[in-house]
Structures are given as C-alpha cells and as structure tokens.
Design brief:
With about 260 residues, this protein is mainly alpha-helical. The protein has 2 domains: about 35-75 and about 85-165, Topoisomerase I, Chain A, domain 4 (Orthogonal Bundle); about 165-250, Methane Monooxygenase Hydroxylase, Chain G, domain 1 (Up-down Bundle). It has helices at about 5-10, 35-65, 65-80, 85-125, 130-160, 160-165, 170-195, 200-220, 225-245. The radius of gyration is 26 Å and the shape is globular.
C-alpha cells in the first residue's frame, strides 16, 4: 500500500535540482509508429525478404570461398566422385559456379518480387514514403544490382550450354536444397559457438538459420516437409530466446 511520508518531511525543502521549473522532454517516436497497420505489415514483409536475400547471397559468396573449393576437391580425391585426372577440377569449378549462379538468381527473384510489391503498395497508398522505407529500398536495390552484376560475370564463365539448363523450376529446387543444407550447417556451428561461450556469433548463426527455415516453411507444398521445417524453426526460436534470456544479449533485430 502507498502511504504518506512522515509529517516532518511533508513540507521539507525540495532538493536543489528540483527547484525552479522542471522541463519535461517527451521521448521521440519512431516514424513507423505513426503509420497505419498496413504500412507496418508491408514493411515487415519487405524487411524479411531483404534479410533473406542477404542470407542467400552470403551463402552464394561462401560457395566461392577458397576453403569451400578445397574441401570439395578433398572429397573428390577420397573417392566420392567418379571423375579422374584433369576432369575433376573442371567439374568442381563448373558445379561451384552453377551453385553460385542458382543462389544469386534466387536472390534476384526474391528482391525483384519485393520491389514490385513495394511499387504497387506505394501506388495504392498502403505503403507510405518514410525514411525507414527509403533506407530499406536503397539496400534492396543495391543488392539487386550486385546480383545482376555477379550473375552476368558467372554466365560469361559458364557459357550458353550450362545456362540453358537453368529453368525457373530448377533454380528454385536447387536453391532450396542448398539453402536447407546451409541452415542445418548454421545450426550445427551455432551449437558449437553456444557450447564454447560465443553468444554474438551463436545468435547470428541461429538467426540466419531461422530466417532460412522460415522462408522454406512458408513456400513448402508438402505437408510433411512443412511440418519438419516448422519443427526445426521452433527449435531454433527456443535457442534464440534462451540466449537472449541468459546472456543478456540483445541484437539489433528481433525474433519474428
């Protein structure tokens, strides 16, 4: 219960810092707080796709890393591949480039559809021009043009024959398989980071896995696949929540 102060303190002198007029400064509101629900829902979708495209591009870059190429070469030398001699490095290089191209094309598809969505919603006045939206669209445009540039470079190295095999269906199916494997790899690496007390890297990897698994779950057509992906996604969410609760680690993004 709230009680009154002792009588001898009821009319005591105010502390020095309380004498004179006290200015109240209202905290500033984020611009998005003043927008409608439609605007914020669309912004959330665009932000998610932007993060997703960033994760897929990160995977594509990892496919071209020297250590990844070396690992593939070692696997083939251990008898996992049927090719021998000079054919082996050429095949590995072609496969690596194809995987990169598939992932960059998938990123292009995601970014293109989201930029078109933003254009429609702005035209229909459901999405308002805010500073946050300008920043987000700038990031998406930069990633889009980077993907276009890298795709052109890879296409020149692959030649026409390889490119003709990449139908939209093949791109999506192959990209999804690579994305799924990468998400599982991120979970495994994050678990090691968590074990050895590295919450920053651990959270980042779990968050990457969560974004990728959520995306795969949203587009899964097979109910069993969706159920399995949701199961993995929920497990990752629990790890993210646990890290936030126990490590007092609060990153710039939230679990969605």
């Amino acid at each position: 219960l709230l009680t009154s102060p002792p009588y001898n303190l009821m009319f005591a002198q105010s502390p020095p810092n309380m004498e004179g007029p006290v200015a109240f400064v209202a905290p500033g509101l984020a611009e998005e707080t003043l927008m409608g629900n439609n605007h914020n829902e669309i912004m959330a979708k665009l932000s998610f796709v932007n993060d997703l495209a960033d994760c897929v591009m990160e995977l594509a870059m990892a496919k071209g890393a020297p250590l990844n190429t070396l690992s593939e070469s070692v696997n083939w030398k251990q008898g996992e591949g049927p090719l021998q001699g000079d054919q082996m490095p050429k095949f590995i290089e072609a496969r690596r480039l194809l995987e990169q191209l598939v992932l960059y094309v998938r990123s292009l598809q995601l970014l293109s559809s989201s930029l078109q969505l933003a254009r429609r919603e702005i035209k229909d006045e459901r999405l308002q021009i805010s500073n946050a939206l300008k920043t987000l669209l700038k990031q998406m445009n930069e990633r889009y043009h980077r993907c276009v540039s890298v795709c052109k470079h890879i296409q020149q190295r692959l030649g026409i024959t390889m490119q003709n095999a990449l139908t939209p269906q093949v791109v999506i199916a192959t990209a999804d398989k690579l994305i799924y494997n990468y998400a599982i790899e991120m979970c495994q690496t994050a678990a090691l980071d968590e074990l050895f007390g590295n919450p920053q890297e651990c959270f980042k990897r779990y968050n990457t896995a969560h974004i990728l698994l959520h995306s795969l779950s949203q587009q899964a057509r097979n109910s069993n696949d969706k159920q399995l992906l949701d199961k993995y996604k929920d497990a990752v969410e629990r790890r993210l929540s646990h890290i936030q609760a126990t490590q007092n680690y609060y990153p710039q993004y939230e679990i969605s």
